[in-house]
Amino acid sequence: MPNKSRFLRVPVEPFVVEAGLGADEVLARMERVSFQGRSLATARRIWEKMLADDCTIFLGVAGALSAGGMRLIIAHLLEHRYVDCLVSTGANLYHDLHETRGRRHFVGSPRENDAVLQAERIDRVYDTYASEEEFCENDEWIAEFVLTLERRSYTSREFLYRLGEHLWQTTGRDGILTAAYRAGVPIFCPAISDSSIGMGVSQARHRDASAGHIDVIGDIIESANLVIRHPRTASVVLGGGTPKNFINQASVQAEFYDDRVGGHRYAIQIVTDVPHFGGASGSSLEEAQSWGKLAADAEQVTVHGDATLALPILASALASSAGEVLAARQPLPFDLAGSEMAVGGRPVSHARFEARQ
Amino acid sequence: MPNKSRFLRVPVEPFVVEAGLGADEVLARMERVSFQGRSLATARRIWEKMLADDCTIFLGVAGALSAGGMRLIIAHLLEHRYVDCLVSTGANLYHDLHETRGRRHFVGSPRENDAVLQAERIDRVYDTYASEEEFCENDEWIAEFVLTLERRSYTSREFLYRLGEHLWQTTGRDGILTAAYRAGVPIFCPAISDSSIGMGVSQARHRDASAGHIDVIGDIIESANLVIRHPRTASVVLGGGTPKNFINQASVQAEFYDDRVGGHRYAIQIVTDVPHFGGASGSSLEEAQSWGKLAADAEQVTVHGDATLALPILASALASSAGEVLAARQPLPFDLAGSEMAVGGRPVSHARFEARQ
Amino acid sequence: MPNKSRFLRVPVEPFVVEAGLGADEVLARMERVSFQGRSLATARRIWEKMLADDCTIFLGVAGALSAGGMRLIIAHLLEHRYVDCLVSTGANLYHDLHETRGRRHFVGSPRENDAVLQAERIDRVYDTYASEEEFCENDEWIAEFVLTLERRSYTSREFLYRLGEHLWQTTGRDGILTAAYRAGVPIFCPAISDSSIGMGVSQARHRDASAGHIDVIGDIIESANLVIRHPRTASVVLGGGTPKNFINQASVQAEFYDDRVGGHRYAIQIVTDVPHFGGASGSSLEEAQSWGKLAADAEQVTVHGDATLALPILASALASSAGEVLAARQPLPFDLAGSEMAVGGRPVSHARFEARQ
Amino acid sequence: MPNKSRFLRVPVEPFVVEAGLGADEVLARMERVSFQGRSLATARRIWEKMLADDCTIFLGVAGALSAGGMRLIIAHLLEHRYVDCLVSTGANLYHDLHETRGRRHFVGSPRENDAVLQAERIDRVYDTYASEEEFCENDEWIAEFVLTLERRSYTSREFLYRLGEHLWQTTGRDGILTAAYRAGVPIFCPAISDSSIGMGVSQARHRDASAGHIDVIGDIIESANLVIRHPRTASVVLGGGTPKNFINQASVQAEFYDDRVGGHRYAIQIVTDVPHFGGASGSSLEEAQSWGKLAADAEQVTVHGDATLALPILASALASSAGEVLAARQPLPFDLAGSEMAVGGRPVSHARFEARQ
């Protein structure tokens, strides 16, 4: 019985279970199922296309991914240049620093008595615990690092580069900050003051009023200039929050100064929030198109699900399938050592937009 | 730095990406991450414990899992006796029948113009399409099958067994209904009248008023008797809806007649709904303990996520890791051919509860 | 500054707070805000249009609305004929019966220790408690009522009418079942076997095998015939589950036999589930249009929120604003006393669809 | 039949519908229903207790509340000192500025074709539209305002005070920024660089490299000092995001320097996100207790729902019921005119924490 409707062309293929399947094959068999299973499989294919295309890939990470065991996946994505620029909440960088410094997060329960935890100074993140004492000690460690820096203003990008450098030099351990430092991947943290990283910086200021000046407005200019320089961009966002918006804002702000910028060409978001309450975290990629954050013909997919469930599978599958395209990729050569960063030797201002002539 | 707190014993282990990992290993590495990733990994271990223990495992399936490409996973779970009894919505059985009869569901888009789809008689399930014409034809096929049956009342369990038998004899194809028939696994469909299966049955009644009598009250008694007979039970629920509640109700009703029944010993639910709106679909497994649906010391886990994303990985991992425990398992030997089913030769009434003497 | 874009015609009007506002006025001021606030205000206007139009209004109620304090709102909607036909889960009818019989649900906490509750035989529904003992006693009360009935098959519609009658005669108290009985509003309960109502019926069967036969297939035919008789229909759905689908199924099944049926003309749903996991509970009203469950030009709105929050305001506002249109309304005159119901004196079969000649 | 269980003391009271009920009475009748309806009613009572107690009340606003028609409610809460300090996303302040400047947001549809909107330069926020051209013009207006300021660093608090002042002087219109200016309520915007406010500031920097320096680290110190000065605090949070965390962080950072600080004494959150994905936006108030963000014995409630639905009712009810307690309240007298703010004449440093002696 032939189906002539143009809507009935590609049949759903039921997933067939087999022992010994690789993550790669599991995801391949999910490409023709439905709903969020299909979305995750599509995300892999779109990411591979980003890698094969000559574009700058932004990665946004919100939520408690570092505390939740995802930090070495993110480090892996930076190290192997699956992405070119990280935008993160402060919390993810702080919890990364915590573990890179040799501390741990612990398996806990979402139903523990929180008054008891408070009394024992255990901080809970859903089903995960950490020691408040160790957190306080981190804050002081950050403050002391800040006091070693020259007394001037730092973009969050420069500050985090130096923090990663210091962490690497003192620990030699793998993590997000250290991997970004070593791979030369810039990190922006637009809401740094809303995190324990910022708290640590403020404790340096407490000791010396001329210390701890972060230039978050410079971050806006620098990130937009990155887009102006290479207007072909892509975005991978885990969770919503400030990273999601900041990556889109860079594109919108860049377009204001240079109309060759036309929104991201590819977009993947793995998100648990929903569009119908109007918040940016849950906003759809279609909505992003109205703003020009995303090109009208972009390849895009939203995966509605928890990143701690989706990302391990997605990253494992990519590790198997994206080797070739990754080897052929020529990622942007950043120089992050100065107050002004550079791409391929050309400086990127944080004081002035590179407006089109 | 030793942590003496009893809350800080088991550290989170960050997931390490590697090429070539099997689904099995991916899930193993997720056991010490956090949030829903950890929950999915825990679900695998609890399911293995169910299989190793001598208990009757109920599987509940709601949502549009068959249309969404999950039906051969469910068939696989029945065939290999990962579970002993299926409770399903009518929709999942109907969409299974549709494909077993050689029709297909199709890859679509959630953003298509639905007025256009209506005009072309394409039925949409989020991102998946089907032909309304083919659905109408299924309904008539079901009606014709019903008219071949003896004119008496059938529990949904008996009716679905006969439907599976007829499907197998006429198609020889794999699917949920045919796998259940061949593996001798009972299927209950408590809301059969709220589905296209029920619509097909009603079309038989239209032609002959003495046809199409389904005894859903008999289902209550039969399912509770299964629990009374083997009070050690476990529950795996995909989605919420009537299957989730019916599996719990069987336990509660059984306990009313026999106080040796003490709730499920193990429970897994993969669910997207949440507890705080009070509905049964999203209710927590803790709440189920207050009712005695679940033993107070049961091993249990809730995975908050879409089954189309979680189930392929979970089933693939189990296929690799559960072989041995599955081989050693001695599942309940059901005889489903009669109006009264039997377990190990002993009939199970659908008219009278097996009250404890 | 005139905006010429056709998209920028109706400005958002910020809500202005004032002391002494009626629910009516609050909702009126929400009509030009955004997101779910606007949706709720729109729901009121659409409901008023339903009432002003000559259409049959179906109300679907899922979730734990009766236990949650909403049962007298639903009773009010039936009594004043804001709606013409109720489709309910068994739970909502059972918890209604519990209170109509003089028992209570109790204010509790979602964080109580469920093992303690189990030991004290307290059943928890999120933040609400009930006595398991009283529930068991209800089940027996239902069983005894069933044993007073003639030994034949009953549609859920007829059975619930008789149950409401018995409740009214023995208690004289207001509630869903008693209001439906008194107002002559039919109630369908497609998943009656998946509820404590069904459990009570099964306990009658246990005592007398010829008792407790519910004809849920007859419900399909009767509900579709209601639509065929008056093809102009509307749907108000609180939650998803079987009521939502059954109301839509009635329309689809009716259209199969009579092509003058073209889907609901108006639709309101207040729902917490979301579309992107593919389940029917969260499915969008647009999706319903592809199936023809909803007319392509229907006026419709989805309110994403908890009914216990939205319904009290919506019903209070309607009570103030819909008086006139309600007074002018001529609701369908049902006669529910027989095995076959009648509308305006003309019987409605539950054995045969009223196919168009 | 007396219920002796301690769990069965306070019965649920079904909501009784009546014409002419005020928002106040509707909420009063919702106090003994269940689920989120009860939560909203509880939120009103807790807010009244905050007002009657001598505590500093922080209000956090995330999401797109200003675009969504909630800005005059927030202005009302500031003007009448239902709260003492606002923490906001940049977007809410920007959309407020947009309307205070006489522009509008527009009623739209979530299903419009976004490529068409992009072509017409219409920006969509779910079901609401705005003109991109007007947004660009706002950004320039902000840049010009920034260029009028002295060339030094400004905390977001000082900057927003001056922006409110300028807006009031140039427009004389009511809104969040102008109400805060007039009522002397400080506003913090920790993620100012992640918003169009920040984009406007960056455009000033583009013209003059010495302009547009925002000291977000100073905000951390200033906000913590507010808590140290008056350690009895309360928190009302709409949505999650940076405002929610920043309000909690102020308490945690304050406690680091002064152990008399013991977490908020009262907390209300109206939130659509959920705890089980581990993100801070959805985190429970219980979890906040483990961190000491909230006192272990705090009165607290979470309302799971959209603020555009819940806030109009809550604010309307409070306007009716809280008049007396509000009149008796003696809110903190802030002086916001200087680079250093003051409370009751005593300056509050943004360079040094007020550590306990």
Account of the protein in words:
The structure is a homotetramer of 357-residue chains. With 357 residues, chain A is α/β, with parallel strands linked by helices. Chain A is 45% helix and 17% strand. The first copy, chain A, has 14 helices and 14 strands. In chain A, a hairpin with a 5-residue loop joins strand 12 and strand 13 (341-343). In chain A, helix 3 (71-79) packs parallel to helix 8 (176-183) and helix 10 crosses helix 11. The relative contact order of chain A is 0.16. The model of chain A has no long low-confidence stretch (mean pLDDT 96). Chains C and D meet through helix 1, helix 2, helix 3, strand 3 and strand 5 of C and helix 1, helix 2, helix 3, strand 3 and strand 5 of D.
